């Protein structure tokens, strides 16, 4: 994907974030509960309210955090292309630029993710707990966004055969599903680290995964994956559609 302007990245990222949050939050609530070993519980409230627990911080985070990776990706890609870095390896450039944007997002999103997860689980949080899971969030997000852009750019030829709107939706949805499937255990570890009642720092992502494997087996790494991948497909397909339409409108106006 060719780099877009800063204004288009910002506007498209905002549209992406609003659409993705509205569609994905119920699936994200179910996913978070499954990842920490529980089942979805209505807790005496209406199903709608239960599914949208934590939606306020999630929507605020989505608008900001869906914008940051697009800005980071486009800036890093443009810089690498201008300086001839990794010439001849465009997919490596896609992954590296995506990972750069993902790491930027991960640093910002960890505290908001912690609040969201605690609200989804009905658990308390405090100011001192907001730094829990920063490293795991950066690793998870850099990996998934790096793989997303690698797969997205690698699939450009077959997506070009589809109508533009369908290409954006299908490309965004399927590419995000593949990327999330690759790194899903990292997301499980992050959710468990941030969802612990003691808010302790724990031993990091790989220690968390090792402990989970010893106690429940490798299959526990993939708890909630059905809700997680469905969320990824709907949210990122719709979000990429919104992003593409906004960028197209801005390009037409500029033209």
Provide the descriptors you would attach to this structure in a database record.
single chain, 255 residues, mainly alpha, Mitochondrial carrier fold, 0% strand, globular
What is this structure's SSE topology?
Blueprint lengths: L5 H30 L11 H5 L3 H28 L7 H32 L12 H21 L1 H4 L4 H32 L9 H12 L8 H30 L1
Helix pairs in contact: 1-3, 1-9, 3-4, 4-5, 5-7, 7-8, 7-9
The averaged pLDDT comes out at 84
The CATH class name reads Mainly Alpha
Number of domains: 1
Poorly predicted runs:
none
Our Rg estimate from Cα atoms comes to 18 Å
SSE order, one letter for each helix or strand? HHHHHHHHH
**CATH fold label:** Mitochondrial carrier fold
Largest sheet: none
Residue share in β-strands: under 5%
How many angstroms does the end-to-end distance come to?
19 Å
Report on this model:
With 255 residues, the chain is mostly helical. The protein has one domain: Alpha/alpha barrel (Mitochondrial carrier fold), CATH 1.50.40. Helix 3 runs antiparallel to helix 4, helix 7 crosses helix 8 and helix 7 crosses helix 9. The longest helix has 32 residues. It is globular, with a radius of gyration of 18 Å. The two termini are 19 Å apart. The relative contact order is 0.16.
Compact summary:
The protein has 9 helices and no strands. It is mostly helical and 255 residues long.
């Amino acid at each position: 994907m060719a780099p877009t302007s800063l204004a288009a990245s910002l506007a498209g990222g905002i549209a992406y974030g609003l659409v993705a949050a509205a569609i994905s939050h119920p699936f994200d609530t179910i996913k978070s509960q499954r990842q920490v070993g529980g089942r979805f519980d209505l807790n005496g409230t209406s199903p709608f309210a239960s599914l949208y627990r934590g939606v306020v911080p999630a929507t605020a985070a989505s608008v900001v955090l869906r914008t940051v990776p697009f800005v980071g990706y486009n800036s890093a890609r443009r810089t690498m292309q201008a300086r001839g870095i990794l010439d001849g390896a465009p997919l490596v450039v896609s992954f590296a630029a995506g990972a750069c944007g993902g790491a930027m997002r991960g640093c910002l999103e960890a505290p908001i993710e912690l609040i969201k997860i605690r609200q989804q689980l009905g658990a308390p949080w405090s100011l001192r707990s907001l730094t829990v899971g920063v490293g795991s969030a950066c690793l998870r997000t850099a990996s998934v966004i790096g793989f997303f852009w690698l797969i997205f750019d690698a699939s450009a030829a077959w997506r070009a055969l589809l109508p533009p709107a369908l290409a954006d939706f299908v490309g965004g949805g399927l590419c995000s599903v593949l990327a999330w499937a690759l790194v899903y255990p990292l997301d499980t570890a992050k959710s468990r680290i941030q969802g612990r009642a003691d808010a302790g720092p724990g031993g990091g992502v790989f220690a968390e995964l090792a402990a989970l494997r010893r106690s429940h087996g490798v299959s526990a790494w993939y708890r909630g994956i059905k809700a997680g991948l469905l969320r990824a497909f709907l949210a990122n397909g719709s979000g990429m559609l919104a992003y593409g339409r906004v960028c197209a409108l801005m390009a037409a106006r500029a033209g």
